[in-house]
UniProtKB/TrEMBL annotation, chains A, B:
EC number: 3.7.1.2
Residues annotated as domain Fumarylacetoacetase N-terminal: 24-126
SUPFAM superfamilies tied to this protein: FAH, Fumarylacetoacetate hydrolase, FAH, N-terminal domain
GO terms (BP aspect): homogentisate catabolic process; L-phenylalanine catabolic process; L-tyrosine catabolic process
UniProt keyword annotation of Hydrolase present: yes
Protein name: fumarylacetoacetase
NCBIfam families in the record: fum_ac_acetase
Pathway the protein takes part in: Amino-acid degradation; L-phenylalanine degradation; acetoacetate and fumarate from L-phenylalanine: step 6/6
Length: 423, 423
């Protein structure tokens, strides 16, 4: 076990037992306060630790890194330093925050400069996304969507259990939690009309996903094995692959999703390192039929992360509309990276690889409204009496995700997005 | 007409009448000589004009730009300066190279420093590609591929004439002409086997395409009209969307092309500005049925660019295997950009938007081996007696493209790629 993950560690900062940001987490993000430049920070309890200040004060001096790497508006330059540095920095931060360490604790001026309350900070997109692939790794969701979208008799395509099905997504339109989304317009083809209409989507949906960020540049022509994959994975984010189902349905044949998805995707501000999630590994179910050798792996590569979706129909309180867990995904992160690079495709620092919609086997565990409402045929009744099939203007959608074990909760915070009317 | 396009202009540099780089072209690229840093250059006849040197010598002083923008390993920072600067720089270069201008012509030392023979230079990827979309805008190719890949009865999907069908491609694996490509491996499903096999592709194909590079960052939620589109387009490149047809066929359902394409794509080293192609505009055929209002446009938006594909089966001379023209494309560049952004998707400096395979109506004008050999059923017989269905290791494929009018030929040079064995 990594020392920084020890459940017995405690910080000199007061942290609630239900906080998603205990000393065992230490997720990285980009924040600013007021007019100050955006910079790298680490979440700890209700605070953000300002790594830019720590760098200026020489607190990373023994690590042999350029401390100005924390004075950037994206994590990419830090991530590019590689796994040994990610680990050394996280371990150093863990040491600085432990209740037996006095370097910050007993230096009032420094403490004042390097700790910012999260409520006072503005969070930015943590990573400049270089390339973005969206997979569809949940057997339950792939079956549901196949039944609803493609073939009412047979949800899964013949290839689905042999390879992680995926497609290239649009990187430019990925935004951080808190960024409102305008309802997109697009071509919609109604069954009773011979021609398509250009109008705001009437089927605005979310997709509950988790994504991972890579931290290396590999050479074109080379592949990453399942055994090597984790050296390339910096951390994970909550991810919402917004979807306009009516636009998607009309455009999708023959080349796949395009404008029905590219209007926006949202990620959580905090990137939880794969190291911090190490304590929450579990075994997955046996993959049957057996996968090809390049997709075989050993060890516990699934993660036990609880995911919840809340819908707030302004100005009402939010209602839980789905809950599921990443451990039920069919394909693992290391299989995704091995498959992505099996043809020699290179990866880059800041790539995002997302899981696709995560659905469990029960209807209240489905990760999209398409599935939850069975394409609108079973509307959701919220506790306040409101009915929803798809999202309406003014709605706010909130994803939460955390792992918990030995009374330690490691989470992502919120991914929160408000829907605005079409422009 | 832009002054720099005047067919009566002549340079003090001797340029062959059949050169694709007369003073009316002035395409931009990134080059280096020996150990020198990569920098921005412009092709003129058999030479490259070193803009980095011209900047150092103050020859762009009146343009109010930072001349170090030419001392970069990608064109992106220059492109980001916007259309008025692209035009001013091209006009300034045109003036400097005209036979009546003495600033370089009569300065032997400067001429020596700023002119490099193309044969002595190494060309680099001209643009750091931010996002890449591949459309499929040729009616003939879409019909052919649909018949071969999807439905032997009906090539076109119902949406095809209503919107430019496209998908997001992989940006990281786009390389410049001269970069050899290793035959990719992947999952292939043979008809006589119940399970897929992981092996080198047996159906390695090219796709003859043209692409355009955008030069602006737009805001998420905004759209670009067909009338505004050209302000955002810096220039065009030859583009080869390498495809492994057997890998593509097995993986493509339900989310579209993925690893069958992402192992590599190739672009020409020279970006020919949209301004330089202004003299070669032609009207397209009427689009029937009429397009939706957001896709309507006025003016001549098609380009008359001759395209040729040569195959060299080492060490034989190359043979012409296809020739076609961009003017037959169904959808125009301004329609592609209007469609891409119609849902509010933002564009970025350095985005690449490609045409998809360009095929004419005759079998010798098809832009891929899939079509030329009708999926291998009609092998090509080369003049040297060699037979090809798909590409073999050691083959070299060459795209050429140029427009010609009033004895002025404006071209892209070569896009040349050699196929190496699988690793």
């Amino acid at each position: 076990m990594l020392r920084a993950n020890d459940p017995n560690l405690h910080s000199w900062i007061q942290i609630s037992a239900t906080s998603e940001f205990p000393i065992q987490n230490l997720p990285f993000g980009i924040f600013s306060v007021g007019d100050q430049d955006a910079r790298v920070g680490v979440a700890i309890g209700d605070y953000i630790l300002d790594l830019c200040v720590l760098g200026q004060e020489g607190l990373f001096e023994l690590l042999d890194i350029d401390p100005t790497v924390f004075n950037r508006s994206f994590l990419n330059d830090f991530i590019a330093l590689g796994q040994p540095i990610w680990r050394a920095v996280r371990e150093r931060i863990s040491v600085l925050l432990r209740n037996d360490n006095s370097e910050i604790r007993d230096n009032d001026a420094l403490m004042h400069r390097c700790l910012v309350k999260q409520v006072d900070a503005h969070m930015h997109l943590p990573v400049k996304i270089s390339n973005y692939t969206d997979f569809h790794t949940s057997l339950e969701s792939a079956t549901n969507v196949g039944l609803l979208f493609r073939d009412p008799e047979n949800g899964l395509t013949p290839n689905w259990k042999h390879l992680p099905v995926g497609y290239h997504g649009r990187a430019s339109s990925i935004v951080v939690s808190g960024t409102p989304i305008h309802r997109p317009k697009g071509q919609i083809k109604f069954k009773n009309s011979p021609l398509p209409t250009f109008m705001p989507t009437q089927q605005l949906d979310f997709e509950l996903e988790i994504g991972f960020i890579t931290g290396t540049n590999t050479a074109l022509g080379t592949s990453i094995s399942t055994a090597e994959a984790e050296e390339h994975i910096f951390g994970l984010v909550l991810f919402n692959d917004w979807s306009a189902r009516d636009i998607q349905r009309w455009e999708q044949l023959p080349l796949g999703p395009f404008l029905g998805k590219s209007f926006a995707s949202s990620i959580s501000p905090w990137v939880v390192t794969l190291d911090a999630l190490d304590s929450f590994r579990v075994a997955g179910s046996l993959q049957t039929p057996a996968v090809l050798p390049y997709l075989e792996y050993t060890g516990n590569k699934h993660l036990d992360i609880n995911l919840k979706v809340y819908l707030q129909t302004s100005p009402e309180p939010s209602a839980l509309i789905s809950q599921t867990n990443t451990q039920y995904l069919y394909w693992t992160m290391n299989q995704l990276l091995a498959h992505q690079t099996s043809n020699g495709c290179n990866i880059e620092v800041g790539d995002l690889y997302a899981s696709g919609t995560i659905s469990g086997s029960e209807p209240d565990s489905y990760g999209s409204l398409l599935e939850l409402t069975w394409n609108g045929s079973k509307p959701i009744l919220l506790p306040n009496g409101t009915i929803r099939t798809y999202l309406e203007d003014g709605d706010t959608l909130i994803f939460k995700g955390y792992a918990e074990h030995n009374s330690v909760r490691v989470g992502f915070g919120e991914l929160r997005t408000k829907i605005l009317p079409a422009i």
